[in-house]
Every structure is written in structure tokens, then in C-alpha cells.
Design a protein that fits this description.
Number of helices: 3
Distance between the termini: 67 Å
Number of domains: 2
Largest sheet: 5 strands, antiparallel
Order of helices and strands: HEHHEEEE
Radius of gyration: 22 Å
Structural class: alpha+beta
Strand content: 15-25%
Number of strands: 5
């Protein structure tokens, strides 16, 4: 009976912890102004900024799969069940917790890989009119080309 309560507590705690990590972003490929490749981070959050500049480069990358947390919860439950089969006493409790945590991490990764599904994303490096560099990742480039004058509105790049 004690093992059942311990297991239930682990499942509830893992679910509550992982649900808080779930994202509900309406812009799936916006990276929030993260700059890479030697470019300085502008310090602005692209989701609320607007600016004008020129495209320096465009790279094709793999999109990160978004997760709902369901894979982590299911993985945590399966891992905790597997861990509960090991040892006895406090060793069993430790194995249950470790199995739950490891299962949650694996389940989350599996769900993310499944959701990415080989989708391509485009990393657009922009030299802003004020000299700063910004990198925006989005799901398509439409008719954007290197050298185009562009504007950034709500984390998306548009021809100007």
C-alpha cells in the first residue's frame, strides 16, 4: 500500500512539474531574438519588436519539435512503473523516482522528435539599420532573398 501511495505521489508531482514546462506559443518557430553564428544578440525580444534592416544570410535548419507534455507524463509513468520493480524498501523508492524522471525525459524527447517530423525551418540573419544583428527563425521565407530590405514585425520577417 505504501508503494502505491509513493508511486501516485511521484506521478502527480512529475505531471505537475512537466505541465508547467509546456509551451503554448502561437508562433512555433520564433526563437525570441536568439542570435548565433558570431552575431551579437540585440537584446530585444522579437515577439514585441519592430525594426528595419537587410538580410545578410538565410540558412535552412531542422525545426525543433514542440511538445505538449503528454510524452513526458507517459514516459514518467512507464519509467516509474519499471523503477518500482527494482529493489526493496528505500532502494525501491529511489528507483521509482529515478525511473520516473528518466522516463519523463525520454518521453519528452521522443514526442519532440515525432512532432518535428523532418520539417525545415529558416534561420534569417538580418543586419538592422542601427547596426545590430538579429536572427529570426521561421517556417518559410516566401520570396525573401539575401540583400532584401526587410522589416521585423512580431518576430516575423517581411519584405519592405
Amino acid at each position: 500500500m505504501k508503494a502505491t501511495r509513493t508511486f501516485a505521489a511521484v506521478v502527480v508531482a512529475t505531471g505537475a512539474l512537466l505541465t508547467g514546462c509546456a509551451s503554448n506559443s502561437s508562433q512555433p518557430y520564433n526563437n525570441g531574438g536568439y542570435a548565433s553564428g558570431g552575431y551579437a544578440n540585440s537584446g530585444y525580444n522579437n515577439t514585441a519588436s519592430m525594426g528595419y534592416g537587410t538580410i545578410e544570410s538565410i540558412q535552412v535548419t531542422q525545426a525543433n519539435g514542440r511538445t505538449s507534455g503528454a510524452g513526458a507524463i507517459l514516459g514518467g509513468v512507464v519509467g516509474a512503473l519499471a523503477g518500482n520493480q527494482v529493489g526493496s524498501g528505500s532502494g525501491r523508492t529511489a528507483a521509482t523516482v529515478a525511473g520516473g524522471v528518466a522516463g519523463a525525459a525520454i518521453g519528452n524527447k521522443v514526442e519532440g522528435n515525432r512532432n518535428a517530423g523532418g520539417q525545415e525551418a529558416y534561420q534569417i540573419n538580418i543586419r538592422m539599420d542601427n547596426g545590430e544583428y538579429r536572427t529570426v527563425t521561421q517556417d518559410s521565407v516566401y520570396d525573401l532573398r539575401v540583400g532584401n530590405r526587410v522589416r521585423i514585425v512580431d518576430g516575423r520577417v517581411y519584405r519592405y
